[in-house]
Amino acid sequence: VSASATPLTGSACLANKRGVLLHPGIRENEKSLIESVLKVKSMPGTLGLGSPWVGAVGICNSSGMVTGTETTIHEIVRADEALGFV
Fold first, then answer.
1. CA 44 → CA 10, 21, 32, 41, distances in Å?
2. Of 14, 48, 73, 74, whose CB count within 10 A is highest?
């Protein structure tokens, strides 16, 4: 399912001024538009043991990220990379 198919505003991505973690169902044209508008790199990923709704599972700013206890280390590493922490 595409991230654009949800009525849940803000649940399909997690963003800061360094990058964006996106719903894994994002379309390439949507990903390109987000990168163009926000002028940052983005990556698809999950949080909370595979949830594609990353904006509903975590919060972040440019200093760090907080996510649920179910989030795996692999998801955290991917989110760290997407959000520009590493």
1. 15, 6, 12, 11
2. 14
